Amino acid sequence: MNKKDVYDQGYNTGYDIANENILTDLNPENFSEENSDKFISDCAEYESDGYRQCSPFEFFAHDINECFNSEGLWESYDQGVYKGICKRVKEFKKDNKSGYRG
User: Fold this and answer.
1) What pTM was estimated for this model as a whole?
2) What pLDDT score was predicted for residue 98?
3) pLDDT at 45
4) Are 19 and 49 in contact (CB under 8 A)?
5) Running along the chain, 102 residues long, what does each successive block of 10 average in pLDDT?
6) 27-41: buried (b, 16+ CB within 10 Å) or exposed (e) per residue?
7) Is residue 102 included in any domain, yes or no?
8) Residue 19: domain span
9) Which of 44, 58, 69, 71 is the most core-located residue (most Cβ within 10 A)?
10) How far is the CA of 75 from the CAs of 41, 94, 96, in angstroms?
């Protein structure tokens, strides 16, 4: 397991979590930087408090923890999650420019 693989897994996880929730949590007609920031925070919190409790993640976590450089791998994973969430929010902003109040 290397940092790029772990980052990519985190990125995909973060993106998927944001994608699943973006239309219910952000209003395309009227949203702001504050709403976006809260959404990013909520998704990151869900990933750490909810998603990590599921069995598939537990196997992934075990594999990371067995590695010599587990701390660095966890940092890469967390960074990937954050970047994946932010990417989906950026796409949402681009697709809904008329409703965004920056």
Assistant:
1) 0.91
2) 77
3) 93
4) no
5) 95 96 86 90 92 87 95 97 97 85 72
6) eeeebeeebbeebbe
7) no
8) 3-23+30-97
9) 44
10) 17, 28, 32
Give the residue among 96, 74, 68, 78 at the shortest CA–CA distance from 10.
Answer: 78
Q: Which residue has the tokens 């960074």?
A: 79
End-to-end CA distance of the chain: 40
User: For the chain, how many structural domains are there in total?
Assistant: 1
In a domain, residue 84? The reply is yes
DSSP string, 47-93: HHHTGGGSHHHHHHHHHHHTSTTHHHHHHHHHHHHHHHHHHHHHHHH
Buried b (16+ CB within 10 A) or exposed e, 53-62: eeeeeeebee
- Tell me the two tokens of residue 26: 């952000």
Quick one: the chain helix, strand, coil %, rounded to 5? 80, 5, 15
Residue matched to tokens 């967390």: 78
Buried b (16+ CB within 10 A) or exposed e, 72-81: ebbebbbbbb
